Request: fold
Amino acid sequence: MKTEQQQDAIDMEIVEPIGKRVLIRKDEDKKQTRGGIRLPDNIEIPTITGRVVAVSAEIDSSPEIPLSKYDKVLFNPKGAIPVDFEGHNRLFVVDIESVVAVFRKN
Reply:
């Protein structure tokens, strides 16, 4: 017999992008400028960076697309599809063409 915790793990949903898409967890919007000025709660500096949470099988098998899970990326939010899956985690399905840069360390 399965415990309630085991059943919850089985019932847990995942989001798997299809086609040339990735799932990105958008970084939190900034509440302070670079100069240290604290912004009011109703004003935010839009941030379009995030971490890749999942890649589609098509991207994973493509050597031309240098993206993998956990990469930090810069993306164009226009056309990004919000996923109301984890609520506060700010997940988006993004076409690979909308990912404009990957942050790499030398």
